[in-house]
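User: Here's a chain of 128 residues. Predict its fold as tokens.
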Amino acid sequence: MAQTAVKAPIVLPRTRPMRPVDLVHLAKQCLGDENLELEVLRLFDQTLFTYFGRLRLALSFDDLAINVHSIKGAASGVGAWTISEIARAMEDDLRAGRPLRSEAIDDLGLAVEEVRDFIARMLADQAE
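Assistant: Prediction complete.
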């Protein structure tokens, strides 16, 4: 008698949503020092608050470029890749002589909010 094989259902691996900060990258940057990681996140949070606020108020090309570049560099340092990529695209637009679109600034603002919320939760978890 021939037996029919019963096929097991295909189970796809569950993927975790990507964190807004690459904690592996941050750990490497901080040589595995968890206290340093938290301090870097505190400083990055303040940097985002300051430079994004300045970006929203900037009127001149130089002010726009300096603030976008500062955000991009800080984000790359801690592994906030979404912010870094949005800021890089904004820099490309500025270099090409295109004005910054309000949608791009809004997109960056959403990414900044997400990262700042993530940092606040991480710092709150450590305080407990």
